[in-house]
């Protein structure tokens, strides 16, 4: 179903309750957020798409089977979330975290959003 050139890096997704999907510079903030949140007892994981096209559907499909929710963090109005929602197909809720003001999404932004999502999916 998926071409072999589609790639993604998975980071601590095996037991994650909430998985962050982030690419590019946002993925750095997301990786730090995963580490910091886990130190606080919040089980986050990260899927970092390496290829945008073809989209790494297999990675998203895998985390949709085990996570309670997915957050798509992106520095735009939400183009990647559409691909994530298509692949998830309603199996778990998908939330956005967007910025369009040229300021980077921070580790704290991601942790705060994950805490909000945790309250909504209990």
Protein described:
The structure is a single chain. The protein has a 5-stranded mixed β-sheet with strand order 1-3-2-4-5, with helices on both faces. The protein has 122 residues and is of the alpha/beta class. Helix 1 crosses helix 4 (107-120) and helix 2 packs across helix 3 (79-88). The chain is globular, with a radius of gyration of 13 Å. The model has no long low-confidence stretch (mean pLDDT 95). The chain has helices at 24-39, 57-64, 79-88, 107-120; strands spanning 8-11, 18-21, 44-49, 69-74, 94-98.
Distance between the termini: 33 Å
How much of the polypeptide forms β-strand, as a percent range? 15-25%
List the secondary-structure elements in sequence, H or E.
EEHEHEHEH
Question: Can you count the helices?
Answer: 4
Shape: globular
Got a strand count?
5
The side-by-side strand order for the widest beta sheet comes to: 1-3-2-4-5
Q: Helix/strand/pairing class, anyone?
A: alpha/beta
- Overall helicity: 25-40%
* Gyration radius, in Å: 13 Å
* Weakly predicted, low-confidence segments: none
**Largest sheet properties:** 5 strands, mixed
Q: What value does the average pLDDT take?
A: 95
